[in-house]
Automatic annotation (TrEMBL):
PANTHER family: N-ACETYLTRANSFERASE EIS. PROSITE patterns: GNAT. Belongs to the acetyltransferase Eis family. This is GNAT family N-acetyltransferase. Acetyl-CoA binds at residues 83-85, 91-96, 119-120. Keywords: Acyltransferase, Transferase. CDD domains: NAT_SF. InterPro entries: Acetyltransf_17, Acetyltransferase_Eis, Acyl_CoA_acyltransferase, Eis_dom, GNAT_dom, NAcTrfase_Eis, SCP2_sterol-bd_dom_sf. The active site is at residues 124, 409. Homohexamer; trimer of dimers.
Amino acid sequence: MEIRPTTDKDLDVFVDTLHAAFGQFPETPAEGGGGLWWSALEMDRNLLAMTADGRPVGTAGAYSFELTLPGEILVPAPGVSFVGVLPSHRRRGVLRAMMRHQLAELRARGEFLSVLLASEAPIYGRFGYGPATYAQRLTVPRHQAAFALPRARGTAGAAATESDTGSVELLRRAECDGILEEVYDRYRRTQPGALSRPHRWWALGAGRPPVSPAPRYVAVHRDADGVPDGYAGYSVESGTLTVDEIITTDDSVFTALARFVLGHDLVTQVVFKNLPPEHPLRWQLADFRAGRVSDDDWLWVRLLDVPRALTARGWFADGQLVLDVDDPFLGEHGRYLLTVRGGKAECVPTDREPDLSLDVSDLGAVYLGGTTPSTLVRAGHIRAHRPGAAALADALFRAERPPHCLHWF
C-alpha cells in the first residue's frame, strides 16, 4: 500500500473515495462549487491510500486554521478531516498508516498541534487526540421562555434586560455575508478554543449554516452607533426554532439575541445547538428547569511538540510541574519541567521525578483548559505522584473562560 499526497487532479477521486467510505453519494455541485461541505478542500494537504495496483482505498486531509489559545494567542492549527477507509479494506491497518503518515507530514510543516471533530470517540484517542472543548445543547419550551429579573444591578444580564441601547435587525442569510464574517472573526480572536473561518469558506459557502448559503434568518444586533456586534442564525421547522449559533463578544448582546429568538411567535420550542459550557442563559430563565440540557464533546486536540505547545499558550497562575508524557502511537516518551511565571511558560526536558504521568491524549484534553487534570486523575487516566500535584495542575491549566468551538469542518 502507498500513502501519497494529492493534487488538484485528484479532486474527483478523493471525493468519490471518501463518499464511498461512508456509503454516501456526492452532492450535485452548485455553480462555482459553492455550498458543498467539501468545496474548500486544500488538495496540497490531503492524502490518498492506494493499493499496489493503484486503486484508492482511503482518504485523510486537513484544513489550515488558526486556533485561539488561552490568553488570546492565535496559532496555526491543521484541522484534520475527510478521514475514511473503504469497507472492503477496513481492519487492515490502512487508517493507522494514514494517521501516522499525516502526523509526520504535519511535523514536517512545522506545526506543533492538530485538531479534529471525532466522528467516533474510541477511534482518535488511539492516535493521541483528546477531547478539549465541549458543547451544550439547550432546549427551551416556548411557554417557559420568560426571563427572570436580574437581582444584581449593573451586570451584563441586567443591562440587556433593562436598558440595552442596541437594536436587532432581522435579515435573510443572503443579505449579510460580510456582517457574519466580520462579527465571527472578532469573536474567535478572543474565545479560547475557537477556530478561524477563512474567507474562502464564506466565499464558497462551505460547511454548515450559517457559513453555507442554506436558507436561514439572521438576527443582527447593532450597537448604539449602528455597528454590528452580534448575530443569531436560525431556522423554523415543524414548530421548532433551531439556533445554529449566537456569536458576540458581549454578554449583554448575547442576552438580547437570546430574548429575540425565545420571543418568536408560533413556535413550541427553541433549541440552542451549541452553547459554551457553563453558559448563564439557563440561569437567566424565570424557570430554571425549563431548559433541558445535553452535553457533547466538540474539538479534539493532539500535541505534536509538547514544549512548543506548552510555551505557546497563556497562563493564569504560577507554579512548576514535571510532566511525564507517553505517546504510544508514535512510540515516543518525554519528561518535561513546566515552569510558569507571570503568564509565560518554559518547558524543558528533565530527569527529575514526575509530578504527573499522562498520555499525550490526556495532555491534549487539558491543554485548552476545558478538562481539568484532576478529573482525569480521578478517572484513572493521569497518575499523580504526590499530594497536591493535581490541584496545582488544575490551577495552571485553567483558561480565562471555558474553551468553546463552534466551527464545523
